[in-house]
Amino acid sequence: MEIKANKINGANAEIEATISTDEVNANVEKIAKQLSKTANVQGFRKGKVPVAIIKKQYGQKLVEDAEAEALREVLSKGLDELKIANESLIGEPTISKFDKSDDKIEVAVKVAMRPEINLDDVDALVPDFKKPEVSDKEVEERIKEIAEGQAPLVNIKRNRKMKEGDTAVIDFEGFVDGKAFEGGKAEGFELLLGSGQFIPGFEDQLIGVKRDEEVELNVTFPENYGSKELAGKEAMFKVKVNQVKVKDEVEVNDELAQKLLQKEDATLDELKAEVKKAIEQEKLAKLYNDELKPKLLEAMVEKLDFDLPEFVVEQEIDMAVNKKASEMSEDEIKELRENPKKLEELRETFRADAEKSVKATFIIDALAQKLGVKVEEQEVMQTIYFEAMQMGQDPQKAYESYKDAGYLPAIQMSMVEDRVLSTLLNKKIEE
């Protein structure tokens, strides 16, 4: 067996070999002898089947297994020659050449390795930034908002005209073409005017109406309304205003602080400190997500230089091409199938972005290992559950849907990326 191993770059290598027919035949003999000891063949006792019978019965399968064993030997010897450990490999080796003739097989196997990335200068790539400041006015306004949110609704004493911000307690029934429709009726419904909770125009027409008045409101359902039977239709609602409520006033004092902080001796100053801390975190998260994280990742992709595994880049291009194909007409897809050159030109338009994407993935992976950042599957599940509940969806169904679609690894990687970048930025603050 003649082997020639060549390390193309830091992430790719090729092993070329010539396997003689004699070597394949020797493998056939060896496999046949092993099989003769375990095979069940009618008319023979187990372990006593002649090798000639095994060869006759298994024929081509023996040859294929013998060739496969020779290929494994080629790979093993080639990796030894290149001094590449098995754990450094990523993906499956690719057979780029397999030419058989009467006396030999000429093969070429491409392998990809996890690239080595020098992360010594990563800290220097973290952009300079100032920790967001929070003014006393912002804290006071936030506490006022919280207090208003805690305030109970109370009936207004004077029977005045309703205005935006009032909560109307109403009975209503809706009609389309003079007929009441399903789901268009309710009693004692609390509607905050100006909230945009109802069909456009409904809340606006209640402004100026008083308690105990009955009115008819004419509206048009949006074209994209959830119910196809009602989408785009004109409707009339009969509405009776039973009560008008407003938010009661809540004093901003130590008592409010004790209620919100769940602490008997809490003070307003403590509440202000907690609120200030929360606003700082909100501002910092916004700064991180909107500006600093994209900027940091872009800088690392641009400045860190290393070789990329070819097959990973090609896979990324495949995904981009498939996505593009889903937006193309049948004629355009047919043209690509019939014109390999045009398909190759299309693939090349995605190469630069694919390389950046793959590069970013390897950088984040290497940093995660260096910084000890991990995201367990349980955390991914909790994140999906939380988001589903916020959107009013069934958490278990949402999780199963993501799992069935194969999205969990991508979600996990996204969480790792977020945590890695946050770790680097937080380190910058500490410095």
Strand-helix topology:
Layout (H helix, E strand, L loop, with lengths): L1 E6 L4 E9 H16 L14 H32 L11 E7 L3 E9 L9 H4 L10 H15 L2 E3 L11 E10 L2 E14 L9 H5 L7 E7 L13 E14 L6 H8 L6 H36 L6 H16 L4 H9 L1 H10 L1 H21 L5 H14 L4 H10 L3 H23 L1
Antiparallel strand pairs: 1-2, 2-4, 3-4, 5-9, 6-7, 6-9, 8-9
Helix pairs in contact: 1-2, 4-7, 6-7, 7-11, 7-14, 8-11, 9-10, 11-14, 12-13
Structural write-up:
This protein is of the alpha+beta class and 431 residues long. The chain is 51% helix and 18% strand. It is built from 14 helices and 9 strands. The strands form 2 sheets. Strands 5, 6, 7, 8 and 9 form a 5-stranded antiparallel β-sheet that branches. A 4-stranded antiparallel β-sheet has the order 1-2-4-3. β3 (94-100) and β4 (104-112) form a beta hairpin. α6 (254-261) packs across α7 and α9 packs across α10 (340-349). The longest helix is centred in the middle third of the chain and has 36 residues, at 268-303.
N-C termini distance: 59 Å
Please bin the fraction of helical residues: 40-55%
How many domains would you count in the coordinates?
A: 3
Number of helices: 14
Low-confidence stretches: none
At the third CATH level, what is the topology name of the largest domain?
A: Trigger factor, domain 2
List keywords for this structure.
Alpha-Beta Plaits; alpha+beta; 431 residues; five-stranded antiparallel β-sheet; 51% helix; elongated; Chitinase A, domain 3; four-stranded antiparallel β-sheet; Trigger factor, domain 2; single chain; cell cycle; 9 strands
Quick recap of the structure?
It catalyses: [protein]-peptidylproline (omega=180) = [protein]-peptidylproline (omega=0). The protein is α+β, with helices and mostly antiparallel strands.
